[in-house]
Amino acid sequence: MSKVHLVRNGLDELLTGLEEGDPVPAERDLAVRFGVARDTVRQALHELLLEGRVQRRGRGTVVAKPKLTQPLSLRSYTEGAERMGRKPGRILVTWEDIEATPDLAAGLDVEVAEPVMHLERVLLADNERIGLESTYLPLSRFAGLYDTFDPETSLYAAIRASGVYFASAEELIETILPTPREASLLLTTTAMPMLHLRRRSLDAQGQPIEVVRALYRGDRVAFQSTLVDDV
Questions:
Q1: Cβ atoms of 192 and 219 closer than 8 Å
Q2: Which of 9, 72, 116, 207 has CB atoms 3.0–4.6 Å from 225's, for a disulfide?
Q3: Quick one: three-class SS letters along 43-85?
Q4: Regions of the chain with pLDDT less than 70
Q5: What DSSP character marks residue 1?
Q6: Matching CDD domains, A to Z (predicted)?
Q7: Coil, strand or helix at 100
Q8: Are the beta carbons of 222 and 173 closer than 8 angstroms?
C-alpha cells in the first residue's frame, strides 16, 4: 500500500471523530503524526478535497458539509435543496436577449437568430456557491417573465405560475473542467472537476420550454436517480 493510501486511511479515521466545520490538523502536524513527507499529506488532503470531504477555509482546512444531493427529476434545484434542509439562493450574473444559434434554434424549435432569453445565475446552498446555471427560453413564449420574475427565486415555479408545466426532459451529465471565468464565479480553481449538465425540457404537448447548461462543483454536489425495471 502506498504512503498516500496509508495517510488516506488515517485521515478517514480522523475525520470520523470530527464534526462539520471542525479544523483538520495542519499539514506539518499530520506529516509528523503519520511519519511521511508533507507532500504526501498534501496529496491525500487534495484527494479528500476533490471528494468533498474537506474544504479550504482561509489558510486552513475544515471538515466539509455533506454534498448537496440533487435528484435527477423535473423538480427544480430549489426543491432539491430544501428537501435536504439547505437554504437555496441565487446570484444573477446575466439576464439578456440573444439571437438563437443553430444549436439553440434546434433545441427550442425556433428560427436561427430569433430572440432567445438567456438567464445566467450562480446557485447557492446555505450561501455557498455550488453551481452556475445558464437557461435559454424562447422569448416569444416567456417575454412576460421580465415583468413578473424575480431572478433570485425559482424559475420553474415562475414558469408553472405562467401556466406552462414540465412534462419531460432529456438530460446529459458529464465531467469537465471549468473555464477561468466559471471558476472565478464559483470561487474555485480551474482544476476543480465539474458536473456538466445539459437539459432540454418539454411541456405535455411536446413543445420545448428550455435549454439549460449548468455546472456543479464536483466537491459539493452529487446527483441521484431512482431506477425501475419496467420489463
A1: yes
A2: 72
A3: HHHHHHHHHCCEEEECCEEEECCCCEEEECCCCCHHHHHHHCC
A4: 1, 74-76, 230-231
A5: -
A6: WHTH_GntR
A7: coil
A8: no
pLDDT digits (tens, 9 = 90+) for 74-117: 666 777 778 778 889 999 999 999 999 999 999 999 999 999 99
Cα–Cα separations (whole angstroms), residue 211 to 79, 207, 221: 19, 12, 21
46 and 74, same domain (yes or no)? no
Cα distance between residue 205 and residue 141, in whole Å: 14
For residue 37, give its domain range: 3-63
Measure the CA–CA gap between 37 and 169, rounded to whole angstroms: 50
φ/ψ (deg, to 5) at 180: -55, -40
Dist CA 162 CA 222 (whole Å): 30
Q: Could you tell me if 120 and 180 lie in one domain?
A: yes
Q: Would 206 be classed as within a structural domain? A: yes
Q: How far apart are CA 164 and CA 203, in angstroms?
A: 7
Q: Give a yes or no: residue 18 inside a domain.
A: yes
Contacts of 231 (CB under 8 A, 6+ apart): none
